[in-house]
Amino acid sequence: MDIPDFRTGSGRISLDFIRTLRWRGSDEEVEELDSPQALRAWAAQLGPYAPNADIPVPPPRLLRTARETREAVYLLLKAARSTSAADCPPEARTLLNNVASAPTPRPVLDKQGGLSHVAADPVAALLSLIARDALELATSPLVARVRDCAGPNCGAWFLDTSRPGTRRWCSMDRCGNQAKKSTWRAKQATYE
Ligand SMILES: [Zn+2]
Questions:
Q1: Distance 138 CA to ligand 1 centre (A)
Q2: What is the pTM of this model?
Q3: Please, are residues 170 and 10 in contact by the beta-carbon 8 Å criterion?
Q4: How far is the CA of 43 from the centre of ligand 1 (A)?
């Protein structure tokens, strides 16, 4: 089974989560959460759990909830970015409030002083964390700092936490680097 190369680095877990539907609304739209195994892999990669944590493959019902939660997060943040969280569609608001009512991963301190997170149902707990993150972001002044990545083939949203508020790419190592490379290539072409 092919597990996609999930993208990270948008600055909030809710923003990383909505990009698992890549190129949303376009002809090239790609569903990265196309199986319970993919959802499990996303939770292992982006969740707060230890690298060797036991994360069971979620049932198909939870995969459905995950995708519904993701689309509700998208609708909420879209409303908050353009007008206000008050314009979040009621179904999305109800769903997010419900998902957020579940327990989130809880921190555990080990004897070496390391902190990890555990949950009875790791995937459901992560969805709750994502819903809470989106609800908080959508109602915070920070939502004005959610931007579209300037990468031509990206379409991701990210939180600009730079002091001057001039960050342009969802990640420096991917989109930012690509932009630098093409500027460099353009320069080389001019000199040739
Ligand atoms: Zn990007």
A1: 21
A2: 0.91
A3: yes
A4: 21
CB 73 within 8 A of CB 97: no
Terminal CA-CA length for the chain: 46
* CA dist 112 → 29, 66, 108, 116, 125 (Å): 44, 34, 11, 11, 25
Which amino acid type is present at position 25? G
Which tokens in the block code for residue 184? 């460099």
- Which protein residues have a CB closer than 5 Å to ligand 1 (ion)? 149, 151, 154, 156, 170, 175
Question: Using an 8 Å Cβ cutoff, are 74 and 15 in contact?
Answer: no
Domains of the chain, residue spans: 13-191
Q: How far apart are CA 57 and CA 54, in angstroms?
A: 10
Q: Which residue has the tokens 């769903």?
A: 95
Rounded distance from Cα 106 to ligand 1 centre (Å): 31
Q: What is the token pair recorded at 39?
A: 């959802």
- What's the CA gap between 43 and 188, in Å, rounded? 42
- Burial string for 86-117 (b: 16+ CB within 10 Å, else e) reads eebeeebbebbeebbebebbeeeeeeeeeeeb
- Divide the 192 residues of the chain into consecutive groups of 10 and give the mean pLDDT of each group: 85 97 92 97 95 94 98 98 98 98 96 94 98 98 96 92 92 80 67 55
Q: Dihedral, CA atoms, 134, 138, 139, 143, nearest 10 degrees?
A: 130
Q: Please, what CATH class does the domain formed by 13-191 belong to?
A: mainly alpha
